[in-house]
Amino acid sequence: MNLLEVKMKKIILLLLVVSAVTFTAPANKNRNQNLNTTVQNSKKGETAKEAWERVKPEIKIRLNKISKDLVAGNYKASFDEMPEKFLTYLAKKGSMSVNELKNITIKTMSKLTDNMKIIENTYDFENVKVGKTETGRNYAIIPTKVTIIYNGQKINGEGKTMAFEDGNKWYIINYEKEYMIFLKDVYPDLAKIK
Q: CB-based contacts of 62: which residues, under 8 Å, 6+ apart?
């Protein structure tokens, strides 16, 4: 295999892994209720940093669970946590139901990752960038690192994950330029973040 093929496979696999990892939101009603209560208890005029510090412990727990699921090869767990608003949008674009979209995506991810094993997926909570969108939506951008084994070769990659507020919930999505295109119709303010 030549160097160009290795680099292309590395890029493709990283995109697949990062996309599978980070389109997530609260799947569990208790976790979601904790964040709802936290958001409702926030003070008016709260800064983005204050909002992030308030929800950071719960976001850490959720991201750690996602990491463990991915290392175990459980892509369904991450996919089941996608924001319903975004899932509905994607399903409409594909002229299918949300369940069909989930099933097709899970099957495709499983097939595409046959020769791949995620061995580590980590988030850098020390270097998070926080802010507010033009609409006042709080967000945090979290650096992400992933290590995979592909055909016996160890590959390291870096990306970004975004946690953001929508109503009384916080969601987590992949924050890569390629994915902002998909978000612009559902979350146009997030697509404008630089």
A: 24, 26, 31, 81, 172
Diameter of the chain by CA atoms? Answer: 57
| Helix, coil or strand: residue 182 | helix
Its pTM stands at 0.74
pLDDT in tens, 146-176: 888 888 899 999 999 999 998 888 988 888 7
Report DSSP letters for 99-136, one per residue: HHHHHHHHHHHHHHTTTEEEEEEEE-GGG-EEEE-TT-
Domain ranges of the chain: 3-185
**Contact at 8 Å (CB) between 78 and 24?**
yes
Q: Model confidence over 100-151: pLDDT tens digits?
A: 888 888 788 777 777 888 888 889 999 999 999 999 999 999 999 988 888 8
83 membership: H or E segment, kind and range: none
CA pair distance 148, 157, nearest whole angstrom: 8
* CATH dotted code for 3-185: 3.10.450.100
